[in-house]
Amino acid sequence: MAPEPLLPQRSSAHVSRRRPTSAQVACALLALALALSANTLRAQTGTSTRQQLSYTCITKSGHTITGDLPPPECKDRDVRVLNPDGSLKYTIPAPLTPEQRKKRREEEEAHRQEEEKERAQTQKDRSLLEAYGSVEEIDAARDRAIAGRQTLIARSEQRLKQYEREHKRLDDEAEFYAKRELPADLKQAYESNAALTKQQEKIRADALHEIEQIKEHFGADRERYLELETMAAKAAEARERKEREAEAQQSREQ
Asked: What confidence tens digit (pLDDT) does each residue in 202-220 have?
């Protein structure tokens, strides 16, 4: 019996380029059709849901109006947007009246000012803690500032005594002119003495006023520093208590 002829062998690469069968083509078309149908159904469902939303409101007269769009009768009223099942989706708030807008602006401005005040206080507290390490340092700075003004006061008082002596000398000299007009140079000496006296009295008064301001300023700083120390101590105590509670809880769990 003659041997059967050998058929040429096809490579795997050649086999992979074989044309798809009609069954494979049909399956692919069916899958594509199903995918398109699902997308179309989802789009239609979404459109249907959006179309089924309803808008309802209560007019000033107390009537309830419902429609597919926000009712124009309720342009100044809250409008409730309902889902197809009647549940609330969200509410369109009514426009604010001029009085309400004014009140809101005032509230926002008050809130802004309060925030600005808090930021300024925080910055002031930070500067205070950076400037001083203890209450004793605040007291020392206060005393140095007061000492400088006290030096001015002492110098002014010395000059005032000098001008007082000078004024007495001028009075003694003026006695010779009891029934006559004072000479021009004597009048000028009186005027100069009065101006210098007034100047030193103002310097002394300003220094005394500054001392009171210094006491008030450093007194406020001292009080605030003590408050910050108390706040820091309470915060540290709270942290320690929390840590102890956490450690105790961990011990119980173990």
From this structure: 999 999 999 999 999 999 9
Residue 178 within a domain: yes
**Sequence-distant contacts of 100-106: CB under 8 A, at least 24 apart:** none
Q: Which domain holds residue 193?
A: 133-247
Q: How many helices (H) and strands (E) does the chain have?
A: 5, 4
pLDDT digits (tens, 9 = 90+) for 10-42: 444 343 445 555 555 444 544 554 455 445 545
Q: Does residue 141 share a domain with residue 68?
A: no
Separation CA 105–CA 188 (nearest Å): 64
Strand partners, 57: 65
Same-domain pairing of 64 and 139? no
Query: Could you give the number of structural domains in the chain?
Result: 2
